[in-house]
């Protein structure tokens, strides 16, 4: 443990570990993915996918070791015993900081399949990470604006169909799809128009898009509540060892009718789905209040 070091020094050393870890492990990810592209035979692809998941797991493990090395955090984790690494999950969470992703990766490593995000197609150009996401089969989606659909109606539904096609590769390998329901990070300024005390208004469209793309593969929904009792950390604050306590609560939900409707074309289902999501967010808001007090 190097938590006794000055915070600026801890931040610099920790950042260097993150940087070198990402660069070094992205290279084999890309090379193996190219090999998978050249040899698209199922037995070969299955083996290469396992190697790719192993490399990604090593990346998460090294990042977690860096956290343990430089940070002295009191972890309060609840409901983790109900998770299974062989299930297909949709993970829903509140969102306050980019640290949320590091926290979830550290806690959920080997507890559930690796977290994957639906990403905008443009993010593939992010240095190193874009290629790593592509190598790990993160689903890239192309969303069409309302204005474009008005001019070209034949494009309606094409984004969903292309994403469904991309998600077919998940039918044989367990996966966890991550969705930050609020669509952006919580701040007091953004919360001025919210009806919740500790959350932003949830956006149902993103979850509906995931369920419409791969609902037939999902077994359960994990509702995650992340609380930073002292203050919400920035990435720099976190890697500098200034975060003292983190509370993470997991609640496993068995989906039913939520997987069977058409959110985009059935107004009755859309209304029912939005009511369900708002009720879930009301319960989460009350839970955060209890955890903080």
Note down, in words, how this protein is organized:
The chain is of the alpha/beta class and 293 residues long. 46% of the residues lie in helices and 13% in strands. Strand 4, helix 4 and strand 5 (140-141) form a beta-alpha-beta unit. Helix 1 runs antiparallel to helix 2 (42-70), helix 1 (7-38) crosses helix 4 and helix 6 (158-167) crosses helix 7 (204-214). The model has no long low-confidence stretch (mean pLDDT 85).
Keyword list:
46% helix; 293 residues; two-stranded parallel sheet; alpha/beta; globular; 8 strands; 6-stranded mixed beta sheet; 13% strand; Glycerol-3-phosphate (1)-acyltransferase
Layout of secondary structure:
Layout: H1 7-38, H2 42-70, E1 74-78, E2 89-93, H3 99-108, E3 115-117, E4 119-120, H4 129-135, E5 140-141, H5 146-151, H6 158-167, E6 176-180, H7 204-214, E7 220-227, H8 235-239, E8 245-253, H9 267-292
Parallel strand pairs: 1-8, 2-6, 2-7, 3-6, 4-5
Antiparallel strand pairs: 7-8
Helix pairs in contact: 1-2, 1-4, 6-7
The CATH C-level name is Alpha Beta
Classify the beta-strand content into a percent band: 5-15%
Low-confidence stretches: none
Q: DSSP helix count?
A: 9
Proportion of residues in helical segments: 40-55%
Kindly name the structural category: alpha/beta
Summarize the helix and strand pattern as letters.
HHEEHEEHEHHEHEHEH
Compact overview of the structure:
The protein is 46% helix and 13% strand. The chain has 293 residues and is α/β, with parallel strands linked by helices.
């Amino acid at each position: 443990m190097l938590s006794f070091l000055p915070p600026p020094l801890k931040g610099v050393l920790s950042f260097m570990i993150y940087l070198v870890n990402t660069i070094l492990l992205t290279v084999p990810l890309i090379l193996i993915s190219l090999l998978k592209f050249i040899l698209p035979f199922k037995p070969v692809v299955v083996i290469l996918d396992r190697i790719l998941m192993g490399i990604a797991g090593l990346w998460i493990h090294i990042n977690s070791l860096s956290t343990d090395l430089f940070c002295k955090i009191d972890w309060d984790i609840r409901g983790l015993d109900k998770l299974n690494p062989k299930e297909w999950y949709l993970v829903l969470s509140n969102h306050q900081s980019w640290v949320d992703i590091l926290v979830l990766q550290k806690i959920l490593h080997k507890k559930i399949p690796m977290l994957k995000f639906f990403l905008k197609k443009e993010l593939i150009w992010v240095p190193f990470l874009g290629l790593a996401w592509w190598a790990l089969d993160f689903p890239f989606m192309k969303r069409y604006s309302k204005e474009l659909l008005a001019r070209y109606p034949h494009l309606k539904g094409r984004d969903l169909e292309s994403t469904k096609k991309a998600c077919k590769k998940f039918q044989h390998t367990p996966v966890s799809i991550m969705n930050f329901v609020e669509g952006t990070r919580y701040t007091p300024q953004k919360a001025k128009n919210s009806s919740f005390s500790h959350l932003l208004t949830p956006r149902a469209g993103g979850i509906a898009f995931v369920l419409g793309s791969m609902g037939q593969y999902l077994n359960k929904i994990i509702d995650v509540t992340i609380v930073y009792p002292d203050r919400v950390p920035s990435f720099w604050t976190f890697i500098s060892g200034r975060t003292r306590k983190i509370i993470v609560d997991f609640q496993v939900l068995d989906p039913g009718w939520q997987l069977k409707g058409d959110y985009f074309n059935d107004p009755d289902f859309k209304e029912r789905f939005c009511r369900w999501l708002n009720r879930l967010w009301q319960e989460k808001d009350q839970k955060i209040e209890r955890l903080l007090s």
